[in-house]
Amino acid sequence: MIDKDMSIGEVLRKDSGTARIFMEFGMHCLGCPHATAESLENACLVHGANVDELVHQLNEYLAEKGE
């Protein structure tokens, strides 16, 4: 399960297919140093995205895959 305290890097390591969702939320620098340390909540603040919606979509994606 994904939560807003996880980093982009943690989510990508769990399933690289989540990159598409990050891109849809305007987060295109998935390999930058901030992605490995910054929480999803902080990343959303920087990118003007809704963290609750991002977490929801990430968890839906993983649930559909059976993870």
Which key terms come to mind for this protein?
about 60% helix; single chain; 5 helices; about 70 residues; globular; mainly alpha
Helix content: 55-70%
Low-confidence stretches: none
Mean residue pLDDT: 91
What does the radius of gyration come to? 10 Å
Work out the number of β strands. Answer: 0
Whole-number total of structural domains: 1
Distinct helical segment count: 5
What would you call the structural class? mainly alpha
Span of the ends, CA to CA: 8 Å
Order of helices and strands: HHHHH
Major sheet details: none
**Envelope shape:** globular
In percent terms, what proportion of residues is strand? under 5%
Summarize the structure in words.
By secondary structure, the chain is an all-alpha fold. The chain has one domain (8-64). Helix content is 60%, strand content 0%. The chain contains five helices and no strands. The termini are close together.
